[in-house]
Design goal:
Structural class: alpha+beta
Helix content: 10-25%
Largest sheet: 8 strands, antiparallel
Distance between the termini: 27 Å
Strand content: 35-45%
Number of strands: 13
Number of domains: 2
Length: 232
């Protein structure tokens, strides 16, 4: 009985831990070092990047990322994010923000190895947006790349499936500013508070309890049946 109870506790703990939200933080290794800043501000909120700025931020998933992902779209798992390019903040709570890409690769331990995360933010216009509206974006590849006050040529659904996104920009735009930086690594953020399991997580734990109890009852029935069939 003690062995069964110990196994039950371990199973419940594993069920809850598996669904625990996890936050991944982009750790900066340097600021921007290459610039294509605006030359003539014609329209939009023009502003240039500088060497004191860098791309940074974090995102939270409903459960830890699986091992051995290969450029997987994890947008459905993302429950919150907040990024900064030094000029703009890209928050999942901002109605002007759109997910363009949210692709991640992991190693055998589930740690992030590479990303293709691109988040947009509309700067002008209202939803639904139209060609000519201006936007900014932050991109996390092997290096950080940012674009501010770019004119949108085509509005549609992003590759991540988010509508009302800018899917094509005007290349020759003198009001636009770009910057490029060094690589960003990703680390799991330490838990600052004790995480209270959600209703879904408790459901997993209860399922584990019921499975363990059912197995225990079945084992006891088999034991009694075996004992009753032994000849006197």
């Amino acid at each position: 009985m003690k062995n069964w109870l110990a196994a039950l506790v371990m199973l419940c703990a594993a069920a809850v831990a598996h669904a625990q939200p996890t936050t991944y933080v982009a750790t900066a290794t340097g600021n921007y070092n290459l610039f294509i800043n605006f030359t003539l501000c014609v329209t939009g909120p023009c502003q240039n990047f500088n060497t004191s700025m860098g791309a940074s931020g974090s995102f939270t998933t409903s459960a830890p990322l699986a091992a051995n992902l290969s450029a997987a779209n994890v947008a459905p798992l993302v429950t919150a994010f907040s990024f900064s390019d030094g000029i703009n903040t890209y928050s999942s709570a901002d109605p002007a923000v759109r997910i363009f890409f949210f692709n991640v690769s992991t190693n055998a331990s589930g740690a992030i190895t590479t990303t293709n995360i691109r988040i947009q933010r509309w700067l002008t216009g209202t939803s639904p947006h139209v060609p000519g509206d201006r936007h900014s974006w932050v991109l996390f590849l092997a290096t950080g790349e940012v674009d501010h006050n770019a004119q949108c040529l085509t509005v549609g659904a992003s590759p991540a499936g988010v509508p009302d996104s800018c899917v094509l920009v005007l290349g020759a735009d003198t009001s636009r500013s770009l910057a490029f930086g060094s690589a960003r690594a990703w680390a799991v953020a330490p838990s600052a508070v004790t995480v209270v399991p959600t209703l879904a997580e408790w459901s997993l734990a209860l399922m584990a309890v019921f499975m363990a109890i059912a197995a225990l009852v079945a084992l006891r029935h088999r034991s009694r049946a075996s004992a009753g069939s032994v000849p006197s």
